[in-house]
């Protein structure tokens, strides 16, 4: 992996990805933040050496560099998932690349299902803890000690300072921002009623198929990270309806302006 990191980082630096301060990972249906960026360069994933390629049809698959709210940012417009057949090391490779490029903070977004019955679709949830149900770890590979501490502490995986700022910004702009626990499952199938019931019992407020591997690697890299879920459906096991993916994307799009506001104002404050 070390050689791949060097080759990829060198390629991106030569393309002008120069000392970004903040990395951003945009989840399903959450691409409008890019419209706020003064883009200096963008490259499709399939042109970047050793980079995975996004295979989900509603993920753009672009690495973007530019300025947002007065800060240099590097943005993943579309992420990779374990369910696409990639390893967890592949899924998190871009986080390591962003760190190599120089980012000091990482912001992550995703679309998720609301387990907590007090949360409604279209709401936002600030992640303050998570449950890893993906059956593996992006740190579980030979040679991990070359990259840092093998046994990474996860007692506080989400940065308290950025989370506090997010809450202040939400309050100031009258944005509903819940706080809760995100459970990350493999997918790509959606959950059964019994699985949603189980997730609620073990303490999950929302469920999705991403984010946690990236958070683990950010902590491994000692990179402060914060994450927000856009809640796109309500997962009530007693009143479960078939999932409409088009509706999920539409709800993510409706909620996105609030997410853009939170991310932009936070970046301005950092």
Automatic annotation (TrEMBL):
This is Purine nucleoside phosphorylase. It comes from Psychroflexus salis. Residues 21-268 form the Nucleoside phosphorylase domain. InterPro entries: Nucleoside_phosphorylase_d, Nucleoside_phosphorylase_sf, Pur_Nuc_Pase_Ino/Guo-sp, Purine_phosphorylase. Its EC number is 2.4.2.1. The purine nucleoside phosphorylases catalyze the phosphorolytic breakdown of the N-glycosidic bond in the beta-(deoxy)ribonucleoside molecules, with the formation of the corresponding free purine bases and pentose-1-phosphate. PANTHER family: METHYLTHIOADENOSINE/PURINE NUCLEOSIDE PHOSPHORYLASE (PTHR11904), PURINE NUCLEOSIDE PHOSPHORYLASE-RELATED (PTHR11904:SF9). Keywords: Glycosyltransferase, Transferase. It comes from the Bacteria. One of its GO terms (molecular function) is purine-nucleoside phosphorylase activity. Pathway: Purine metabolism; purine nucleoside salvage. GO terms for biological process: nucleoside metabolic process. The gene is deoD. GO terms for cellular component: cytoplasm. Belongs to the PNP/MTAP phosphorylase family. Pfam families: PNP_UDP_1.
